Amino acid sequence: MKRRGTLIAVGVGLILVILVVVAVIRPKASAVSKKQNEVVAAQDQQKTLELTLAQLNADATDAPKDRKKLAVLRAQVPPTADLPGLIRLLNRAADQSNVDFVTITPASPAASATGTVSVIPVQITVIGGFFSIDQYLFQLESLPRISTVTSLTVTHGPDSASSDLQAVIGTNFFTTDANAGPGSNPAPGAAVGGAAPSPSPSPSGGP
């Protein structure tokens, strides 16, 4: 009888232990496990934030150089056609090359094949000595704005008594204004002339 009572007491004790584990310890263990998972997630997030911060710091260090590169690119392919500025560049090149005469005829901008930029065709006619024209072509390649020469025709100048040559240069300039927006479209066929200090008559015989 005594042994039976002991077994009952042990059984009750085991039940109480199980109840304590289920009611108290197990929820605590679950909460601890959850917190551990949160700590791991927070550590992973911290690593990600540290990598992002390092990248931002690197970008901040490179920002001045990137701004300079962007400024150069904006000068090479400006956001607008800026025909007055382009004409000034071409006239300045003529002055520096000592050619006798230059005419600049821009055409209407047109979208490129990719549609990312607009192409501005410009026909340039220069008259001068061989070395002056050669220097003008060099100046053309050295302009702040990017250009491509699409055609070049060199003939004797309009004055048969002179040894001057005439070069007709087909070039393309570019703008990131893909739509060639308001103010960037020159009048079709408009010609703008610029001359060195002692200009000669244009090939057409005009002043």
Radius of gyration using CA atoms only:
39 Å
**Which CATH class of the largest domain is shown?**
Alpha Beta
- The succession of helices and strands, N to C, reads HHEEEHEEE
Q: Total domains, how many?
A: 2
Q: Distance N terminus to C terminus?
A: 138 Å
* Computed structural class: alpha+beta
Low-confidence parts: 181-207
Biggest sheet statistics:
6 strands, antiparallel
Figure out the total of helices: 3
Total beta strand runs:
6
CATH topology name of the largest domain, in short, is: Alpha-Beta Plaits
Overview of the structural elements:
This protein is an alpha+beta fold and 207 residues long. It has 2 domains: 1-76; 83-195, Alpha-Beta Plaits (2-Layer Sandwich). The chain contains 3 helices and 6 strands, in the order ααβββαβββ. It has helices at 2-76, 83-97, 130-141; strands spanning 101-106, 110-111, 118-128, 147-156, 165-175, 192-195. Strands 1, 2, 3, 4, 5 and 6 form a 6-stranded antiparallel beta sheet that branches. It is rod-shaped, with a radius of gyration of 39 Å. The model is unreliable at 181-207 (pLDDT under 50).
Short description:
This protein is of the alpha+beta class and 207 residues long. The protein is built from three helices and six strands; from the N terminus they run ααβββαβββ. A hairpin with an 8-residue loop joins β4 and β5.
Q: Which features does this protein show?
A:
alpha+beta; disordered C terminus; Alpha-Beta Plaits; six-stranded antiparallel β-sheet; 2 domains; 207 residues
